[in-house]
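Reopening: structure tokens for the L3IBWBLD complex, inputs below.
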Amino acid sequence: MKQQRFSGLFETESCTYTYLLADTDTKEAVIIDPVLETIDRDLKLIKELGLNLTVAVNTHCHADHITSTGRMKQRVAGLKSAISKFSGASADIHLKEGDKITFGRRFLSVRETPGHTNGCITLVTGDESMAFTGDALLIRGCGRTDFQQGCAKKLYQSIHKKIFTLPEECLIYPAHDYLGQTVSTVGEERKFNPRLTKSIEGFVDIMNNLNLSSPKKMGIAVPANLVCGVHDV
Ligand SMILES: N[C@@H](CCC(=O)N[C@@H](CSS)C(=O)NCC(=O)O)C(=O)O
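Re-run output (same inputs, fresh job):
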């Protein structure tokens, strides 16, 4: 009997992945990194599947899009928002290393993976078959480290100590992909990630020379995400 429903959902403007996980027996569900623009799509799916959404969690305080967790709380009775205690953002649940987000008989455990921001977390399924890495580890890449307390050394250590120590076959689901890639594995990223296969000095050098422009929505996204995407809840 299948006990877990998993959906990967995509928001095209910010290239953000939202993930929905549910225990198919109890119908309890968790949503990871939901985006304001796709709130209707996500809530429609949840309703169609007859799920009871209990937690909406952000892997960090996003700088490129506005979260829908606050608006979801207004539309889903009993829903709780969650984010790292180091994010600086308000939420019902402030997460730290080792915490568990339970849905039915399943859970996600929290691994702190700072470096892109101070409050970045990676969420790992109880059986360590899936890891939701937010903007820490991307497929063949990683989150930038040039704002929001970003630190390349910290990110390198986070990924090597908290993500690359997971089983080789553990599936990696990042918060973004800009090339259409949907999933990787710990083993693949350990072997082929062009940034993380370097020494820490080489990695820092790459990160200091990315020369990326700032996310277009940064000025509105960060203040909004500090209050779950809304200023009135
Ligand atoms: N062009 C996009 C922003 C793209 C970007 O900066 N992505 C971030 C994650 S969202 S803060 C990132 O870490 N990218 C790493 C990389 O190597 O691309 C926009 O304007 O929103």
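The longest strand covers residues 4-11. The longest helix spans residues 152-163. Marking as resolved unless the reporter disagrees.
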